[in-house]
Amino acid sequence: MMKRNPLVLGHKTLKQITEDIVAPVETMPSKGWLGLFLSAKMLFIFYIITLALVVSTGMGLLGVNHPNGWGTMIITFVFWIGIGHAGTLISAILFLFRQKWRTSVARTAEAMTVFAVMTAGLFPLLHTGRPWLDFWLFPYPNQRGPLWVNFRSPLLWDVFAVSTYATVSMVFWYIGMVPDFATIRDRAKNKIRHTVYGILSLGWRGTAKNWSHYEMLYLLLAGLSAPLVLSVHTIVSFDFAVSNLPGWHTTIFPPYFVAGAIFSGFGMVVTLMTFVRIGFPEFKNYITLDHMEVMNKIIMTTGLMVGYAYASEFFVAWYSGNIYERAVFINRALGAYGWSYWVMVSCNVLIPQLFWFKKIRRSIPIMFVISIFVNIGMWFERFVITVTSLHHDFLPSNWGNYAWTMYDTAILVGSFGMFLTLFLLYLRVFPAISIAEIKPVKDVGYGGGQH
Amino acid sequence: MSDTHQHDHDHDHEHDHSADASSASVPAPTLRDPRYWLSLEDWAKDPEFQKMAEKEFMSSPLQESDGEDGWARREFLKLMGASLAMASAGCIRRPVQKIVPYNKQPEEVTFTVPNLYTSTYFDGSEALGLLVSTREGRPLKIEGNPKHPLNKGATSVRAQAHILSLYDPERIKGPQRNLLNKAKTNRDTISAKWDDVDDATVKQLNKGGVVVLSGAINSPATRAVIGDFCQAFGAKHVTWEPLAHEEIRHGQKASYGEALVPFYRFDKAKVIVSIGADFLGTWMMPTTYTRQFSAGRKDIEKMNKLVVFDPHYSLTGANADVRIRIKPSQQISVVMGLAHEIVVKKGFGRFAGNASVKAALEPFAGVVSQLKMEPALFVKLAEDLIANKGKSLVVAGGLPTLTAQAQELQIAVNFLNSVLENDGETIESKNSLPGLTASYSEMADLIDSLNKGTVKTVIIHRTNPLYSLPPSFGFKDALKKADLVLYTGDRNDETGLQSDYLIPDHHPLENWGDAEIGRGLFSIHQPTIRPMYDTRSFELSLMTWGYLAKKGPKRLQEFETFYDYLRQFWKTDIQPKAGKGKSFDDFWDEALQDGVVGTQASGSSSRTFKTEALSSVKPVQSQGFELVLHPTVAMGDGSLANVAWLHELPDPVTKICWDNYVSVSIATAEALKLKEGMLLELTVNGVTKELPTHIQPGLHDDVLAVAVGYGRTQAGKVANGVGVNSYEMVGVKKGQAIYAGAFVEVKNTHKKYLLANPQGHHTMEGRQIVVEATLKEYLKNPSAGQHKHHIFSIWSGHAYNGHKWAMSVDLNSCTGCNACVVACQSENNIPVVGKKYVIQGREMYWIRVDRYYVGDPANAQAVFQPLMCQHCDNAPCESVCPVAATVHSDEGLNDMIYNRCVGTRYCANNCPYKVRRFNWFNFAKLIEKPMHLALNPDVTVRVRGVMEKCSFCVHRIKAGKTKANLEKRELVDGEIKTACQQVCPTDAIVFGDVNNPKSQVAQMFKDKRGYALLEEFHAAPNVRYQAKIRNNDQEGTAHDNKGSHS
Amino acid sequence: MATIYKPGMAAIFETEEAILKAAHKVKEMGFKKFDAITPYPVHGMEEACGIQRSWIPYVAFVMGVFGCSSGWLLTWWTSAVNWPLNIGGKPFHSLPAFIPIMFELTILFSALSSVAALFYACGLPRVNPPIIHPDLTCHKFAIFIPRDDVGYDEGKIEGMFQALGASAIKRAEF
Asked: Global pTM?
């Protein structure tokens, strides 16, 4: 079999591994972390204020209008949900494929997933006209005489899909951390930490019987999450595909959205991992260049997939002979919002092709820049899909542009504040790499190490 | 006056005699105006109710929740329980906590059932018979009186909108005095007492030199009062309107010897040629003429033909079968050119041999070469006219024809009509329109005598010359020379500021009156609400002064109320004309109930045309850009400018709202490097104005068209500063205002400016949206121009037993006049959002009229399409709503449940027609008191964050069904009318039950011209459109929409 | 669930190999109730200790089926039986539109119930359970034989542990 590079560098002993990984949890935060955290926090507060203003005054503060009923909030929702896919994908699907390299990035990727889904989850709730009535979207028995929800609506599917996904991915993430919490608990010198992590660890002791159940459950969750993660973005894509708008009503959307989600997810993982490597140098031995390279390969591949999707959309628009479809796509590339379309294409299809070169794949600064481009491109993809279809539909008399306001900007930027705050906190208090999972593979890649 | 009299009418304080001072000194006007009750007495002689009401309108529930939101539903519920009187007593300024139920209900008032009172509306040139629907004592909506022979139930945009001027918060609440300094420049106003006003006035009146300056008045009784008054004080009555029809009267005088405004019969005409006369939009009596015009097009095989020589893009031009863009200076050439073609070339008519005529026509031999039309078309038109002699009609008039040669143009037109033997056929001189006596020359004379100092007192009524009279007339300075200026306007507006006293007249809806709508057609004008403020009718003011000065005829002095005067007048003057052989009371009641009595004068015969008049008609030289000023459908002369509905209503042709602008042709825009909205500087007659540009397809390259009626400075919060006052660009020549043809210098300022245009795109991009065919195509194939799609469903679908509501819209009848839009707005409490939000795309209209340009842009034709919720059987909006807030009723209605809606806006996105509107903000909060009184209690006022849309007036459906149930009978087809259908002057909209095969809508659905919008998506709309047919001798339409396969 | 901690003998081992060997030996000695404590799942430990395959998958399957059918029942009953509405002219029971709901509920029920099953199987959560040695969750391994195991004899066990090269042997409660 092919010779593979070590997954963990520097011949670590079990003890070293534990110490390396729990170091950020057990030591005082660095100035850099504090700086980052405080600025993220400020942004988060600013975000909360913006949302409060929008909710109290009305959706009219945003650029949404007639005909563009959906805007920044839905765009950014899809953006974050998309990012929220890499985590589960890495930890579940790669786990099923027995990809050992996943272990060192899985935990952080999952964390990213959970936080991204949390960030995303706010939008569909807040973008409604009367957010305080959102609970009406749940089919709960009530006193109003038969009064139920409409299960034919993709938005309702969303409610189920996103909440299920949030729950399961959170559980998956937490279960994975339980043994590591136990580790921290047992290393704890002071009372408080011992209690806190004792509670988090649920009293885990790692007996062989427990481990066998545990591994089985982990396998099950992986097996369940894999279709789930695919279903979620499929259903998110239904929000568009099930409607009858030209540019939305497309059968290619589910796979196209999933590919895009993986693409953007890995983009974000690379971005964050470069941060982690800078923030915690000792992690370089666990999140190695090889890991980064593999992810870059995936980015390049999924980049090609979305490129294919873009192309086939145009082909189908032309081939269908549907004049509304054609008009929308011509308008997409050449119309009022043509620029956003080309931003999308260059960021998502062209730039990632640089990863054909090994040098670039393995250069941290370059891959960082590219990953940022990927994030930008993927936000614009959702912008293009949402706005360019709405603003140019069937009756020309309805055509109208999106009235972007400063509140749109505030919400888009602010949502990063929320995400980063949560993520930075996570880096401090949770083991950023799965200790229990990394130990079995510590010898992989060294001669005679087991596979 | 005697105290015994006092005793009889203890609630009557009309006159300013000693006993009155007491009540006049009460801070709030309470028991001042009794006429409202008198009106009720005519309906229900119910003294008990009267007493109760008087007790109760001391307290008003409207005063509760003062200062908070404009219209709380709870408050409305209280109002439901409040008395007729209280509901209308919006003026009382006393905080009140209790509400009073209708313990004694007047027999003619039933809760939740509107009472309809007949009334009239007169905007200075068009008079309409109205039905004012009132609920619990407050007028809610203005509808046309179906019994009325002219408008037949239809009304105009402004007639409907003037209800808001009743509830305008900025009306002055009582008489006021302007403390003017010598220069009459200051702005200090104090409130006055009627007594003081009257004393001061009578003192001044006795000094003589009195002039009553009023707008056109079509009320015989009012004219009589003014007549009596003039007689009493040797006063002079001057009538003036910005939109006068003087040129027609002058033209008629010169051509036939009698100055009159004839009544035109577009319904009798087979070929109609209009030169600048926008008779479908703004000219003379558009609603009536639209009715006539569309009546001539219902039978498509025999439909009439409309040819318009359009100096700007008028609504009439937009509806023309053949539209030729011209500039004002070409108007005479067009008419004389036609005459030449007919009389000289074709040798047609009784003037054929006439040498002098020939001589007069000769200069116009080759005019067609100057026109932007192929000569063949011109010849064809001449032939059509000859072929339809006596059944054709040539009209010219309105501001765009008011060049220096306005009168000559009229003479030419009259000549042509005489040649074609239309005079007496399609032009009824015996049936001339009374009341259209407004005159610029009289105004000019008044100004002269003011300057001479012979006029000491000016009483200004129903007109606002300091806004709408071109300053070049110099009225402002002249007026300063008068000793006393009284103004009856409802606000301290441009004219008010220059008056010594503001003596507010009642709002028309608060006042008694009458109208002579056509010769021999008389209408009564009933009040529908007790005067809200301490106002006094203009007529009563004149009567009061006559009484106090003990001058004038008996009837001027003896009556205490104008109501009494009116009754007396009708007894002596009207009944002999219109109600012979009836007891007066029957006659009177009939007049009140039907709203109209008498019949239009008939027996017009052709008059002899004075050929010598022709000699004055000479070709006109023109140079460079020519100015065209024109009124708009919404704003008219600008007197109702403070009504927000009118500002937000998109112009029928340009679709722009909340502004006036200068329209330039595409070529001119390119030449001047203009972009839409860019500010263009116009200099005309030494006046320089900066207006935003609108690039108008189909406009003559030398024409710059600007709307009048904007740029008010003192009208109120809504109107002030909206647009530019283009009256100031008008020039004067021999006492005549020159609205068109003046040479304009232009300068592109390259400054940007945003115009609010709710319509996004103006061509159909080859999609099957408005189906159009020429008459020739139609005769070959009734469904010409349509591409039918093969549609199938994978399941049988839901069954609709019982009613299934549906609507049919005949695009061949619709003229795009927008009356339906305002009707819907008034009926369904649709908020106005203002310019900023229209620009952001947040307008709220449930029905809108899309206008698309077709054909060559330089010479574009227009088509209109009213678009409301299509109530699709397979409604795309319904299936995507997560909370089932919009679902289908078993009668085929697409119901919107406001209180279930959480506002995901997915329904709006998924609606192929985009007819759903979202409450982006809490628009209802912006409704200022007392405007909330105009809200229709049958329709929920929507809160922030919910979706709304056309409901097919579901509340009217319910009301109709309930009525039928109570009367234990089946619904009658046509019994239920939607608001838009009810107001439509062309009967383009038909609503009803398609499950009833005999219903009109079911018939329309069978029409071969019928098609559903975006049929191919199989949303299965319950609205069907009928294709537009253009009677223009072409083989094919200007555009072709057969590309829309999907 | 409430667990009674049992006293017994525990031996600490330093390496994965040692613990595997030890586990085998202890099994051969015929102990039944003993357990091995490792910081991470050690390859081959199941057969070493003779642990049979976990039963959690059955729970997952049954609950998955339950979730799916409850999803169908919910959608069918609400929109076709309890409150049939004509929505967009679609059939009351529009099954294709209900599939996403059914799918999501399948996953949700299956996943959450398997987690519950783990908690049951491992007796989680435990409040502050006795720990043989803190390094057992870091880099050390241990075997624990409860007193109530067949043929429990402290002397013999201690001997065996020493033979297996235990770094430490102690009485402990576990």
From this structure: 0.89
